[in-house]
Write a structure and sequence with these properties.
This protein is mainly α and 385 residues long. Helix content is 75%, strand content 0%. It is built from 18 helices and no strands.
Length: 385
C-alpha cells in the first residue's frame, strides 16, 4: 500500500469515527469541557437572545435577554459559563457610563436630597430585617413549610438589601447555610430586574428625566484617556479590597471628572450594550440545575417576599415623591430591593434619573456593608442581661 493510500485510509477512518453518532456526541462533550468553548457558546446564545428581545421590544433587551436564556439553559443542565474578566470589564464600562451623568448641576441636586438618601438607608435596613424575620417565622418552626436545619443566622444574612456576595461570605463566617443565603439574594435580584422594567414599560414610565451625561459625543483620544483614568480607579479599589471594585472604582473616577467639568468622551452605545450582555450572563449562570431542587419552599417564599417588598417600595417612593421634585418611578428604582448595577442600568436605559438612582444605591451599599454585621452582633450575640 502506497503512502498516499495509507494517509487516505487513516483520514477516512477518522472521518467515519468522528461522524458516528456516539463518537460525535463524545467529541462534543469533550469540547464543552473546554472553558473557552463554553464561554464563546454562552456569549453567542446571549447575543442571539438579546437580538430577539430587541426585535420584540422587550425592556432592557441587552441585559434581560441574556439573563433569561442563560438562566434557563443553566437550569436545564447546559454548561453555560460566565468569564469573570468579561463581567469585570462590563462593570467597568457601566460604572464609567453612569459617572458621566454627575455634572455640577446634578451633583448639587443630589446633594440637596441628602435627607431622602439617608431615609432610604434606614428604610432598606428595616426592610431587610423584616424580610429575614418573616423567612425565619415561616420556615423555622414545624409544619409543611419547614426547612431542615434553618437557623436565625441563615435568614438574617439572606435578607439584607444589597451586597449579595458579601452577605454570603459573612453568613459563611458565622455558620449560615450559604446555599440558602446565595439563592435568596440571586432570586431577589433577578426578580426585581425583571419585574420593574416590564412594569414600567407596561405603564409607559420612561424618558421622564431630561438630564444628559456631561459628555455626549464619542471622542476616541478622550475615550482612551477616560478608560485609563477609570481603569486606575478600578485598580485602586481592587488593591484596597473594596466591594464591587470594577463598578465603584470606574464610577467614582468618572464622577469626579464630570463633577469638575472635565469632558473627555461619551461611551459608545455598542460598548454599553456589550457590558449589559455580560452582566446579564453573570446573573443567569447563578441559576444552576441544582438551584431548581434547592428547597423549593424557601425559594417560593423568597419570590413572594420580593414581590411584597417591591409593592412596599412603591408606596415608599410615592410618599417620598410628595416631598421632592423627583418622579416616583425614579425613587422606586432607587429604593427597590435590586442590585446596584442592575437598577442603575435600568435607570440609564429608561432615562429615569440615573445620578440619583446610582447615588442612592451606592450609599445604601456602603451602609449595608458597614452596619449589617454590627447589627447582627447587637441583636443576636449580646450576652443575656
Amino acid at each position: 500500500m502506497s503512502d498516499f493510500q495509507l494517509v487516505f485510509h487513516a483520514a477516512s477512518r477518522s472521518f467515519y469515527l468522528f461522524f458516528m453518532p456516539s463518537n460525535f456526541k463524545n467529541y462534543f462533550s469533550v469540547l464543552l469541557e473546554i472553558s473557552y468553548i463554553r464561554i464563546i457558546l454562552t456569549l453567542l446564545l446571549a447575543w442571539a437572545a438579546a437580538g430577539l428581545c430587541v426585535h420584540l421590544h422587550i425592556p432592557l433587551p441587552w441585559m434581560i435577554g441574556p439573563l433569561l436564556v442563560t438562566a434557563a439553559t443553566s437550569m436545564l443542565g447546559a454548561p453555560s459559563l460566565s468569564w469573570t474578566p468579561l463581567r469585570n470589564a462590563g462593570q467597568w464600562v457601566i460604572g464609567s457610563a453612569l459617572g458621566l451623568y454627575f455634572t455640577p448641576q446634578v451633583v448639587a441636586l443630589v446633594a440637596s436630597l441628602w435627607w431622602a438618601i439617608a431615609l432610604n438607608i434606614v428604610w432598606s435596613l428595616l426592610l431587610g430585617l423584616l424580610f429575614g424575620a418573616w423567612l425565619h417565622r415561616v420556615h423555622h418552626g414545624p409544619g409543611p413549610l419547614h426547612v431542615a436545619g434553618l437557623s436565625r443566622i441563615t435568614t438574617y444574612f439572606a435578607s439584607p438589601i444589597g451586597a449579595a456576595s458579601e452577605m454570603t461570605l459573612l453568613g459563611e463566617r458565622y455558620g449560615a447555610q450559604t446555599e440558602l443565603v446565595a439563592s435568596a439574594h440571586s432570586l431577589r435580584v433577578m426578580l426585581v430586574t425583571l419585574i420593574i422594567p416590564f412594569g414600567f414599560q407596561w405603564a409607559g414610565l420612561h424618558g421622564l428625566d431630561t438630564s444628559l451625561p456631561g459628555a455626549r459625543f464619542v471622542q476616541w483620544p478622550g475615550l482612551a484617556l477616560l478608560a485609563l483614568l477609570t481603569g486606575l480607579g478600578c485598580w485602586t479599589m481592587v488593591r484596597l479590597k473594596r466591594t464591587n471594585p470594577w463598578f465603584i472604582g470606574a464610577l467614582l473616577a468618572a464622577l469626579l471628572l464630570t463633577a469638575c467639568n472635565v469632558t473627555l468622551s461619551a461611551i459608545p452605545q455598542s460598548l454599553t450594550n456589550a457590558a449589559q450582555l455580560v452582566i446579564g450572563i453573570s446573573l443567569g449562570v447563578r441559576f444552576t440545575q441544582g438551584f431548581v431542587h434547592l428547597a423549593p419552599r424557601w425559594l417560593g417564599s423568597v419570590a413572594l417576599a420580593t414581590v411584597g417588598m417591591i409593592a412596599l417600595c412603591c408606596g415608599f417612593a410615592l410618599l417620598l415623591a410628595q416631598f421632592t421634585p423627583v418622579h416616583w418611578a425614579t425613587l422606586l428604582l432607587g429604593t427597590s430591593p435590586g442590585g446596584i448595577a442592575e437598577m442603575s442600568i435600568t435607570a440609564k436605559v429608561l432615562q429615569l434619573g440615573v445620578p440619583l438612582v446610582t447615588a442612592v444605591h451606592v450609599t445604601r451599599l456602603a451602609a449595608v456593608l458597614l452596619l449589617v454585621e454590627p447589627m447582627y452582633r447587637w441583636f443576636y450575640q449580646r450576652p443575656a442581661q
